[in-house]
Specification:
Rossmann fold, 8-stranded mixed sheet, 34% helix, 20% strand, globular
Amino acid sequence: MKANELKLIVKEKYSKIAAQSKLQNQSSCCGSTCGCNETDYAIFSDDYSNLDGYMPDADLGLGCGLPTEYAGIKEGDSVLDLGSGAGNDCFVARNIVGESGKVTGLDFTDAMLEKARENAAKLNYANVDFVKGDIEEMPLPDHAFDVVVSNCVLNLVPDKNKAFAEIRRVLKPKGHFCVSDVVIKGNLPENLRKDAEMYAGCVAGALEQDQYIRIINIQGFTDVTIHKKKKIEIPHDILKIYLSADELTAFEKGEIILPVSAVIQKS
């Protein structure tokens, strides 16, 4: 599938998800807009409720980690969140940077941007804004940010080399990034990798972990750290759609390794 087609699929899916609550996204059928044979978009999510700055209206249950937990954000920093959705990580970051800092969210889905701006207005923040744009071609200036974060989004970008090149461009010379993302250890079954629904659900677009790190290194980043990993539990009912009987047996024996979420940082 071509990159533009993949982006359109992602945009359409996440436009629907923007209209749903976190509770709907956590249902076994991934909410009222999805069929029961589709991906549960909240199967990766972590609990934000104890974090300072947490805003429930901004939490759609779409992340796969807590990138701000390890990002080393400081008061006064300028922070960029890639694929900012309804603003969940932006508002947590805003609590850290305070009034002297700045937080920018980048997203290419109009419905998510609208929701994020509504949430920011409720909080009356003057130093949080949301910009429409593609991560592969960010409409943002060079060397503008101290920290870049992203939560379960870069796996949805078709050209990850471009994504990390853009991250490098917008970071200040001594800036750094911290992203939570989905990576593969082992081989992803072909039917999962080919399926557009699983791509939009953050699974089929994931790279093998070593390949992911190589791309980061190619773009000039060194001292890369993986802070935390956890296995992603894809429901058995979903796996049955994509895996053959033999593959299911191999999966149950642990012979097929499915994705993990990882918090990855260039420190």
